[in-house]
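Hey, quick one: can you model this chain's 3D structure?
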Amino acid sequence: MQKVQLQAEPRSVIGQRVKTLRKAGLVPAVVYGHDFKSLSIQVPVKELERVYAEAGESTVVYLNVNGQDHPTIIHDIVRDALSDKFLHADFYKVRLDEKINAKIQLNFTGESPAVKGLGGILVKNMSEIEVEGFPQDLPHQIDVDISGLAEFKSQIIVKDLNVSNKLEVKADPEAVVALIQEPISEEELKAQLEAPAAGGVEEVEVIKKEKPEEEAAEGEEAAPAAPAPEKK
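Sure thing. Here's the predicted structure for all 232 residues.
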């Protein structure tokens, strides 16, 4: 796996004043982690866009600040609601000798003969999968080849996924990742859409991240982010 690197500089501008950085083509960011003193940084927006496209939120990014490399995972990206431009980034510093849990995006590839030739419907039950492993072994995505789905009701389950033996998949091995459903009529589809959903509103626990309080205002345009990767 190719080493992903990103050059950054220490940042003294904080709070609402970071708008001046964005106008200069820089994105305010913060690095934090277990037993690590948080560090405010700034990175060129073009470089951050490149690295994010390459690494996502699971591959290790070696963040170079003042000549020192910090192995990190991009933990959160705040975007402008209208322009989708990067406003703020969180980097979570990891230890390469400690396993973590991370959710890896599934990338569906190929073409299903059942869809192309029989008019079947491809149903994707999962968009990501949780794995456990050392940070340097976490991939950006896991490819799922659907070209073997040739009949109605054919399916791909978790144990069929091509996952490195360096990683432990946390999902049920028999859980369905994707399947082919027979085509349905407009009347059947309408009936399914109008059917009441089962169950009620679930209680949601909000977990705060281990990030500096002064960073809160810098990404206030976006919704609260998920907790930092779980260490093992």
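One thing worth noting: Residues 45-55 form the longest helix (11 residues).
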